[in-house]
């Protein structure tokens, strides 16, 4: 590669965050931030957590890529799960006693189902259900359901509801005692009493409130309907404006009716939540659910992109609401830049979980998942004394199914030791999808460098090693790689540094995040040992 081509290539790594418009006025560039770095609480390995330890919290309540939250109040406990897309195991359920501190319980969807979008977690007559839109084998989206008698599982295999062409199910029991799913559009379908099949046709249910035409949004796209009943009213909360694109697009709106069959009355406070300026810390806020707090106050859970850190995906946010005298609700959190008083009466508990892994216990679903796995993908991984043995698949990260781990910090180190067994190749990645990844790998051909989802042959280096420790540092989207031949006692810094803020949905699609990834390719196997994660302080805002 010539020097000129290298310069052009490195410039392309930055991606494009674009510019945004709030209301009708031109805003600052979307990548510009000027606010000082917020201060969060500190969890395992220095990871940021929401609880500040003084009776307040600072969003996000679940950091990293946890979009489309669906929340269930179950007695004194709260449970939440999120869209898992092409990751398997998926639909990890999280638990909290105070709405602020959350820890994972385990995956509800243990086998690959396809591309899984926003789900709904509900409890009906003592049984738990998760309604799942999934695109199975590229046949288009259809609705499935899994159920369990215990939130911890075991969960049933997916049951096809035979409802096609829709996403974002929201479950509600009507005034007639019948069960219904509302979906994007907004449309409605009745379910059988056991909730395991459709009991009628999909039909229009509601014409969503429309924002002024001069607002800068991505698309109208009424989606994410979530319903609840309070007193004599049914409340329908949904999103419009698109889920990414301009930071000012996504928003929360509401309507109410005395019947699930309508007519629906628009909330006078619409939009209840919306990012109005690119100077706010959270962009594209939407896909909300209302939930009652431990002491009877009310809250709204939804997702948003972090200003300057779209690479982390859509993260889970918590905002207080107030009920008005005329039976509507209003959001009270503002732009979420300041700490907020925690919900009253909750049980404080641990927050987050360590990511460092000595591979002595199975953490699939809790931490590790395969990206776009085949039906037999889990059989590639075998725990054994000394590490996790992973069979090779494909010839490089571009055609393998890498192990991925979601991260939620603005800056971090991650490192791992990899042993090659047979004619294998392995490596450490920052992985968005098969079109967007970077990292280091090694095998019989020596040390390989991956940038913009392809190897750079001009950077290949003879190595002569079957064991290597690899390390990545991501400091506010500036990425540095290192490798060690002596298990991390000494390190060699790789010559290339990258800027990765463009590795997000607005550039590559898919609604994903930049994860830590590990790949194994070729005809042999790799042994993974001693994965370590550490959050870092950064001065970036």
From TrEMBL:
Please give the name of this protein.
Family 43 glycosylhydrolase
InterPro entries given for it? ConA-like_dom_sf, GH43_C2, Glyco_hydro_43, Glyco_hydro_beta-prop_sf, Glycosyl_Hydrlase_43, TAT_signal
Q: Which GO terms describe its biological process?
A: carbohydrate metabolic process
Q: List each copy of the Beta-xylosidase C-terminal Concanavalin A-like domain by range.
A: 356-524
A Pfam family found in this protein is GH43_C2
Q: Where is the active site?
A: 68 (proton acceptor), 223 (proton donor)
Q: Which domain of life is it from?
A: Bacteria
Describe the family membership recorded for this protein in Swiss-Prot or TrEMBL: Belongs to the glycosyl hydrolase 43 family.
Please give the organism: Phenylobacterium montanum
Q: What keywords does the record list, in alphabetical order?
A: Glycosidase, Hydrolase, Signal
PANTHER family annotated for this entry? Answer: BETA-XYLOSIDASE, XYLOSIDASE_ARABINOSIDASE
Question: Tell me, what is one Gene Ontology molecular-function annotation carried by this entry?
Answer: hydrolase activity, hydrolyzing O-glycosyl compounds
User: Does the record carry Hydrolase as a key word?
Assistant: yes
In the UniProt record, the signal sequence range is 1-27
Site feature (Important for catalytic activity, responsible for pKa modulation of the active site Glu and correct orientation of both the proton donor and substrate) residues: 168
